[in-house]
From TrEMBL:
It is an enzyme of class 2 (transferase). Gene3D superfamilies: 3.30.70.260, Acetylglutamate kinase-like. This is aspartate kinase. It comes from freshwater metagenome. Pfam families: AA_kinase, ACT_9. The keyword Nucleotide-binding applies. PROSITE patterns: ACT, ASPARTOKINASE. Keywords: Amino-acid biosynthesis, ATP-binding, Kinase, Lysine biosynthesis, Nucleotide-binding, Transferase.
């Protein structure tokens, strides 16, 4: 008997009929002789609707983050109750749990809490009784304050992986509206091919580079706790893509996939003194503002001025906060000015085979040159090369690069609901 954790996103439980389809799929897994724990997101656009309500009653709902978390967690509780009702009406026993009841213990950061511990005693009790456990994703409980918290982006994925680790599950299945992990986002690159299996390191790089099928925090958790993942579609019986936590390279392709991220912006700090410690000052200011940095480039200092420029990328939603923090520190740091750019796109090629094959950079930059795409920044790791270019060029650049590495399939990929979640 295998213990399987299944996660279904908002598009999979978008209405009553879809919830019943999910219930049937869960029951099929259970009747095949498996113990089943299900994690669900809020239905469809419920979270967006709740945020709109919050904005309608408050000029600044983020000023009361505790109440915002209390509000947003309602969406997942609706989903778990409805799914449990559907399963019970179909002849199987199930029980729904909030994040608190499921033992998801977090820190005290409202809106983006980190999971500190998982104590799924009540979930284990339910599955030991032969019941299907239905757990609300995206939420946890801070024992210090006694408050409900939310987990931020990818919270339901992270909940599912955390429960799989806490329950020592055999596999964690992430269901969305595509049939698995593709060599590129099939909404942008129609001839992207499904990958049957991929190592966790390559998946982590793809997630970090902007691939939308899995959130990076969930993949990081899976790597840390050795949880095997399987990405499948809620709408077909396709076996999907297996992500092996052992780190073994399951496929021989040099490049596993191409990812695009259009959610970033770039800041250039102009005329910063080229002396030891100034870069540390700069990024300390950014870190203290709670902002994560992606790519960094420092220009060579002009010899007669001893000044240089430092450019870095960050989430576009953090741009205003970063500019405010840097402007406040301008006199102390001694830089001349700030420039920012919200019209950038990041393109990345990822694959564990890159470590042992030459010519990857030549193929990438040759393809971009032929397409007339200018490169503004470059960042590399052992299994990834990322470049920054113009946002309005990055999708076409991804298609060109995808073809250059021989990743195109014979037919167009199918996206069943259109969101990729």
């Amino acid at each position: 008997m295998a213990l399987i954790v299944q996660k279904f996103g908002g598009s999979s439980v978008g209405d009553a009929e879809k919830i019943k389809l999910v219930a049937k799929r869960v029951i099929e897994t259970h009747r095949a002789g498996n113990q089943v724990v299900v994690v669900v997101s809020a239905m469809g656009d419920t979270t967006d609707d709740l945020l709109e309500l919050a904005n309608n009653v408050s000029d600044d709902p983020e000023a009361t983050p505790r109440e915002l978390d209390m509000l947003l967690t309602a969406g997942e509780r609706i989903s778990v109750a409805l799914l449990s009702m559907a399963i019970n009406s179909m002849g199987e026993k199930s029980r729904s749990f909030s994040g608190l009841q499921a033992g998801i213990i977090t820190d005290s950061t409202y809106g983006n809490a980190r999971i500190a511990e998982v104590t799924p005693d009540r979930v284990q009790e339910a599955i030991d009784k032969g019941e299907i456990a239905i757990v609300a994703g995206f939420q946890g409980f801070d024992p210090t304050s006694g408050d409900i918290t939310t987990l931020g982006r990818g919270g339901s994925d992270t909940t599912a992986v955390a429960l799989a680790a806490g329950l020592n599950a055999d596999v964690c299945e992430i269901y969305s509206d595509v049939d698995g992990v593709y060599t590129a986002d099939p909404r942008s690159v129609p001839r992207a091919k499904k990958i049957d299996s991929i190592d966790i390191e390559s998946m982590l790089e793809l997630a970090a580079a902007g691939a939308k099928i899995l959130y990076i925090r969930a993949v990081e958790f899976a790597r840390r706790h050795k949880v095997d993942l399987r990405v499948r579609s809620s709408f077909t019986d396709n076996p999907g893509t297996t992500i092996y936590s052992s780190g073994e390279t399951m496929e021989e392709s040099i490049v596993a996939g191409v990812a695009v991220d259009q959610s970033q912006a770039k800041i250039t700090v102009v005329g910063i003194p080229d002396v030891p410690g100034k870069a540390a000052e700069l990024f300390t200011v950014v870190a203290e503002a709670g902002i994560n940095i992606d790519m960094i480039v420092q220009n060579v200092a002009v010899s007669n001025t001893k000044l240089s420029d430092i450019s870095f990328t960050l989430l576009a939603e953090d741009l205003k906060k970063a500019i405010q923090a840097l402007e406040a520190a301008k006199d102390h740091m001694g830089f001349a000015s700030l420039q920012f750019d919200e019209s950038i796109g990041k393109l990345s090629v990822v694959g564990s085979g890159m470590k042992t094959h030459s010519g990857v950079s030549a193929t990438l930059f040759g393809a971009l040159a032929k397409a007339g795409v200018n490169i503004e920044m470059i960042s590399t790791s052992e299994i990834r090369i990322s470049v920054i270019t113009r946002s309005d060029q990055v999708i076409e650049a991804a298609r060109v690069v995808h073809s250059a590495f021989g990743l195109d399939g014979d037919t167009e990929a199918v996206v069943h609901a259109g969101t990729g979640r």
